Amino acid sequence: MTVPVDDVPAVAGWLRAATAVTVLTGAGISTDSGIPDFRGPQGVWTRNPAAQRMSDIRAYLADPEVRRLAWRSRQDSPAWAARPNAGHRALVALEHSGRLRALVTQNIDELHQRAGSDPARVLELHGTMFTAVCLGCDDRGPMADVLARVAAGADDPPCLHCGGVLKSATISFGQSLDPAVLTAAGEAAAASDLFLAVGSSLTVHPAAGLVEVAAAAGARVVIVNAEPTRYDRLAAAVLRGPISQVLPALVSDLPPLPA
Fold it and tell me: DSSP characters for the chain?
């Protein structure tokens, strides 16, 4: 039976009783930090469907103009000035209670780490925008260094080592996820007694499939998202309130697990 949004205390009780919580976060947790999501009513791709081409590896490799647009977009991203919000901090409190098994995120903004989440518990399924990678030789370095070259006039900066194509160290459509990260995420989902999906449309696989993994293993699934998802049918609770309000309410009275 689905618990309505005004019964947040019931879900908070489930969290108090849990001993192994795995969290999956999507773009919705970062919207209150000023970073728009992709598929929501005001999402990046909703307002500008052509922007999705910048996230397609085939278009990115084949079309220099797509790369030039991508570099301008990276340069102007609101994520550089974004700060963690109350939703991110609530997940830090969940971790400090001793219940967090893993924090699996589809986000590339590193706001979880900046909020204080242990980087060892954060599994970045889709990579990070703070690192640049060469698609030719796999050389990696700070994104800030490449953006400085863009600011100096290089609209499609090549790799300084091999001349190859550079992009952010994020997973584009057409690229495979890091197998080690995906395996760790699946193991965390299967080992949880409560699986909390936050701010994700649950349309992108294999991330969305973690809900099924957790449910099949017997975990209680809770979904916190503004819009319906195809996995709401598997959830013991679906909460529609603002994430930066719902998550703090869920952990406000969360005692630490006994040592």
Answer: -PBPGGGHHHHHHHHHH-S-EEEEE-GGGGGGGT---SSSTT-HHHH-GGGGGGGBHHHHHH-HHHHHHHHHHHHT-GGGT----HHHHHHHHHHHTT-EEEEEE---S-HHHHHT--GGGEEETTEEEEEEEETTT--EEEHHHHHHHHHTT-SSPBPTTT--BEEEEE--BTSPPPHHHHHHHHHHHHT-SEEEEES--S-STTTTHHHHHHHHTTPEEEEE-SS--TTGGG-SEEE-S-HHHHHHHHHTT-PPPP-
